[in-house]
DNA sequence: ACTGGGATGTTTCACGTGAAACATCCCAGC
DNA sequence: GCTGGGATGTTTCACGTGAAACATCCCAGT
């Protein structure tokens, strides 16, 4: 199955969904370009793409008003419905054309099966750079649920690691607030992922924004030691007075910079030496 | 000067050089679209863009063969030469159109002054995502040398930090081999920058590729201690036997993980403790 | 029931990037 | 000559990303 799909998801098919859509459609699927009333077109109900950049859409709308739709929309006939086509690629153009009040639009009709069309649309879509991580995850989920792809398949098709696919999918499990913040860019994918291990993801998501928590901060909040229900300080930003005093004491004694990074019960002591004599002195103390 | 330029380098002017080139050109500069023989066009001799992605160009060439040039090329008349236009934006289209054997191409002629046209072209160009760091640097240098911009001006126009501008410019000082490797993507901008502080940048550039040196590796090679002329080991990848033995000895004595990162004469000792008792024990030894 | 292999779940951190911080230069004004 | 402010040069490293490494689950075969 996956092996069967892969040759069809190479360079040529990426082009099908890009600038060369008309070319490939015309030569490979045979129906050529024509114009149809815009109301004949309907969006693919399962297209994961839900958000469209407003400013891009405005620009495109203006451009279409001036010049019309230059690049045809890739569609297929809706089964058992006359005068109806489902958009495979070009939904953004369709939306902008509607805004521009265009009556007819150029389309290329292809004879894709349901599965082909959808698969192509989703693969193309997940690779757009303006996709948010949740949209990407929905695409991956669709490819797996509806087309039986494994994570490993997708990693090969898309060119990312299997764990990247898995981690992106996991983001779908976040509670709604955190997901909204991820979708609108207030928190990063790395932050969101780290929230999965936290007890109160929505609450910590707020703190990310308000207090500027880093990904490392959130990861540490999600570590098993967090299960003790103790109020967790922002351990990277607030070193307690005791730790600071100890750093100073040891630093003064040793004549070297000492840093203590405490995490729950454990941590690290880091000592910087300037020359081999200091290293020797330090080893001596440690071995006594 | 910079203040004067900035309003003209906003959203509208970015659009001038993008998909909406025709629209803005037509409404703001008045000359509208027309077709001219392709041989009338000549590239901007000072356009920093020298390399064009082969695969993109092939796709675009095929597309143009099928449909012609859909988006006009932004040009201005060449002074004192009849039937000649200088390309302000769209050189890639022009190149592809030539390959496709197209006779006429659509252009929008604008009445930009020399300075306007060039400035616009360079600003637009440095913001392309497919530009290599050296091309970016050439663009910045031009904007500073030819238009009197400061690094701070550019940082505001382009939306990057002033130090990013400065660091990118410095890449131009690299010797030829290193520059070639940067240009073709064998080494990263971060690697290349770190090479500036190294005695033998070209030699170390080779090592980056052959031995997989990281940016941190190269930075350390470039530190003043490197001036001692000693053959520098790859300190992050090859911990000498003595250091390893010392780590083990101390680790065994302390019952904790000990790591020693040695750099020239100096370095760091890092000790990981699992609980407060270990920390206390460690402090005791250090204070004795 | 056990084992092995494939698939998925999760954690952790090395990496290059971008910019803060620091250093130095240049020039005008006093 | 000194000072202050602006401009440029340089180093260093915190950051989020992407993936290695590890953990766990599932299913088929013996």
Any overview of this molecule?
The structure is a homodimer of 288-residue chains. With 288 residues, chain A is an alpha/beta fold. The first copy, chain A, folds into 2 domains: 1-173, Conserved hypothetical protein from pyrococcus furiosus pfu- 392566-001, ParB domain (Alpha-Beta Complex), CATH 3.90.1530.10; 241-287, no CATH class. Chain A has helices at 2-5, 11-16, 21-29, 54-67, 91-99, 114-126, 133-145, 151-158, 162-170, 176-183, 189-195, 201-211, 215-221, 241-254, 276-287; strands at 33-37, 41-42, 73-77, 85-89, 104-109, 257-263, 266-273. In chain A, the strands form 2 sheets. The first copy, chain A, has a 5-stranded mixed β-sheet, with helices on both faces. A two-stranded antiparallel ribbon of chain A has the order 6-7. Residues 1-31 and 226-239 of chain A have low confidence and may be disordered. Chain A binds chain B through residues 15, 18-20, 22-23, 26, 55, 59-60, 62-63, 66-67, 70-71, 246, 249-250, 253-254, 260, 265-276, 279, 282-283, 285-288, and chain B through 11, 15, 19-20, 22-23, 26, 59-60, 62-63, 66-67, 70-71, 246, 249-250, 253-254, 260, 265-276, 279, 282-283, 285-288. Strand 7 (266-273) of chain A pairs antiparallel with strand 7 (266-273) of chain B, so a sheet runs across the interface. The structure holds a DNA duplex (30 and 30 nucleotides).
């Amino acid at each position: 199955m996956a092996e069967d799909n892969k040759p069809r998801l190479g360079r040529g098919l990426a082009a099908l969904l890009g600038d060369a859509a008309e070319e490939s459609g015309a030569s490979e699927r045979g129906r050529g370009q024509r114009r149809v009333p815009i109301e004949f077109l309907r969006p693919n109900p399962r297209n994961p793409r839900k958000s469209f950049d407003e400013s891009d859409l405005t620009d495109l709308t203006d451009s279409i008003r001036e010049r019309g739709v230059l690049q045809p929309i890739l569609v297929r006939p809706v089964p058992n419905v006359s005068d109806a086509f489902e958009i495979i690629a070009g939904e953004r153009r369709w939306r902008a054309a509607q805004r521009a009040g265009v009556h007819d639009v150029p389309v290329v009709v292809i004879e894709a099966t349901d599965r082909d069309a959808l698969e192509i649309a989703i693969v193309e879509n997940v690779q757009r750079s303006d996709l948010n991580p949740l949209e990407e995850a929905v695409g991956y989920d669709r490819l797996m649920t509806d087309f039986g792809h494994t994570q490993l398949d997708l990693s090969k098709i898309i060119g990312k690691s299997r764990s990247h696919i898995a981690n992106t999918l996991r983001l779908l499990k976040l509670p709604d607030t955190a997901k909204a913040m991820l979708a609108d860019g207030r928190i990063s994918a790395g932050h969101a992922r780290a929230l999965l291990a936290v007890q109160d993801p929505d609450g910590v998501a707020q703190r990310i924004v308000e207090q500027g928590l880093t990904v490392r901060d959130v990861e540490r909040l999600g570590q098993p030691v967090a299960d003790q229900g103790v109020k967790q300080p922002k351990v990277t930003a607030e070193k307690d007075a005791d730790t600071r005093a100890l750093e100073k004491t040891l630093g003064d004694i040793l004549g070297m910079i000492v840093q203590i990074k405490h995490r729950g019960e454990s941590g690290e002591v880091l000592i910087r030496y300037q020359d081999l004599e200091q290293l020797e002195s330090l080893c001596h103390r440690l071995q006594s």
